[in-house]
Amino acid sequence: MATTIRSEGAIEGAEKFSYDNGIVRLFAIATAVWGIVGMLVGILVAIHLFAPNYLGFVPELSYGRLRPLHTNAVIFAFAGNAIFVGVYYSLQRLCKTRMFSDVLSKIHFWGWQLIIVSAALTLPLGFTSSKEYAELEWPIDIAIAVVWIIFGWNMLATIARRREKHMYVAIWFYIATFLTVALLHVVNSFELPVSLLKSYSAYAGVQDALVQWWYGHNAVAFFLTTPFLGIMYYFIPKAAERPVYSYRLSIIHFWALIFIYIWAGPHHLLYTALPDWAQSLGTVFSVMLIAPSWGGMINGLLTLRGAWDKVRTDPVLKFFVVGITAYGMATFEGPMLSIKSVNAITHYTDYIVGHVHLGALAWNGGLTFGMLYYIFPRIYRTSLYSLRLANVHFWLATLGILFYVIPMYWGGITQWAMWKEFLPDGSLQYPNFLQTVTQIVPMYQMRAIGGTIFFLGMLVGAANLYLTARKGSLLRDEETSSPRRIESEKAGGHWHRFLEGRPLRFSIYTIIAVLIGGVVEYVPTALVSSNVPTISTVTPYTPLELEGRDIYIREGCNTCHSQMVRPFRHETVRYGQYSHAGEFVYDHPFLWGSKRTGPDLHRVGRKYPDAWHFKHMMDPTSTSPGSLMPAYPWMHERKLDVSHTEGKIITLRKLGVPYPEGFESKAVDELRQQARSIAEGLSSSGIQGVDDSKEIIAVIAYLQRLGTDIKKLPTAQAE
User: Fold this and answer.
1) What element of type H or E holds 433?
2) How far is CA 355 from CA 278, 398, 449, in A?
3) Using H for helix, E for strand and C for coil, what is the string for 97-117?
4) Model confidence over 356-372: pLDDT tens digits?
5) Total-model pTM
6) Distance (Å, rounded) from C-alpha 322 to C-alpha 317?
7) Per residue in 69-79, pLDDT tens?
8) Cis bond leading into 589, ω under 30°?
9) Residue 478 and residue 474: Cα distance in Å, rounded?
10) Dihedral sign of CA atoms 146, 152, 156, 158 in order
């Protein structure tokens, strides 16, 4: 007969139920497949940096279009599916219950895969918002929100019906992930549609930059960090057969991390036109992040105390150890890169690429591979097909990371040293930006080799998992039983136990902790437009310039070229007057960029004649011998689409751009008039057969506009 005892941890009655391993299997397969696809695209992108036109049979698949495809595939397809593998496997076992709804689980799975496919179709075609890690257009943004809510609903409902009243630390991180990612995605995705696959950000210039990097940094924090910390806290104790090192350290780690992380976004915008107070807040909280981050690393590594002999032989633990170590390295490096003097060296260089990939490949990749090697033998009721292949995968992955990251660090420092070097007479030693590009080509080649080695490891790992599955049989519904446990509120124990038994209250406190930093940074700059000074000579883009800007965005030019001259001597000498906040008030979205593969373009307007741009876009080597920029011949062949020009003007007016009422009705006529003027100028410079209806004319108009507004001011005001 079942017994009933009303004390903490007591048995009320045993119940039989089953875990849903079918959904775990689906997400695991998706993780492996999309991981291979994402890494393969990454190799193609890496080759583009030293052989820009090698995909000549499809020239439109340039670096600018493929790079966001790669980042979205790795972040949301590979890492995203890995998160769901970890959550669906561990949550059921931690809550001692099946997922709330099998139907919601399947809707979540297929909805997420459809989103990934839609990204794979739209991004290479140039449909992009240009916002880093948030490039997908508005219909897909809505779909992401819907599917994410379905996931959260299923997860929270599962927690609500749990048999284990105490919520283990991994669940804390899962809750924080769902709530914060939902907040970040919705706020950053405020946009006004023009057509089915075209929209403009609701924010402009400085406001847009702040919101984007509030989102961008915290997408790393709450999509690529907190859920993987939850995975770490569940799978490492399981694989090592050891309890978590410190319960109290887990509490400090969680609350300090989610409170501090949300403030750190502005460190991506140091020395830019962002207000100094926001930059300083970002720096202070970024440096503070070392404490909770390293607390989590220490908790993970010390959980392995007494299990180091097992680490030497178990590939699961090997991947986990490398992953946690990389987490510690990346979370030390990140705060250091947020210090202004260090940021002045690394920002806009390939050093940041190395930093990001250390985290993505080692931390996210290491935990994902270790988790998959742990789960597959268990849900297929067999042993791993080959420990030897798993070890081969481990060493290929580790070597691939080293061959990737070290050249990027070296290349980034080389870029900085060459950009800032002056001769005794006060002139730049390397005035031609191309000199720095060609100098680091060997580093780009090593990067491609490292990525290929890592990719080969993924193939070995995927084959090993597939053969493991073939060797066993799927335990789709894992039968188990568990007593329902009741914890008395009066029972002794740590004060935090009170929250761990109340998921709703826990969630409310979590969202409050996250919102504090978000509100302090977001409201003054993003919502109070008067905090961004205006400049009288800055006017909205002409219709032709606006269309050219949209083509610039379509081709992903902002992935290689920044539009932000920082107040450094070497930048003002190279590019011109440093950038002012008021110059960007009509930029929906902002295009400050995060890396300089090519030179900054904010002051490129009127620096070269129209004919130079015409030839440069057709064949960059014709104007810049040795250039590694891809050619864009289709711009010279494709007719400019003006069917949405009126709608764009109307949409931007709704967002606050001061186009006069009724201007949209004559916008196309003004566009054509400006296009004819540019075409006539090209013809007079000796270029024959110029058609004023082609896209290249609009791109030239936009490039020639950049940075020219400030030149209209009297010298004293411009300074």
Assistant:
1) helix 433-439
2) 23, 15, 18
3) CCCCCHHHHHHHHHHHHHHHH
4) 999 999 999 999 999 99
5) 0.94
6) 9
7) 999 999 999 99
8) yes
9) 9
10) positive
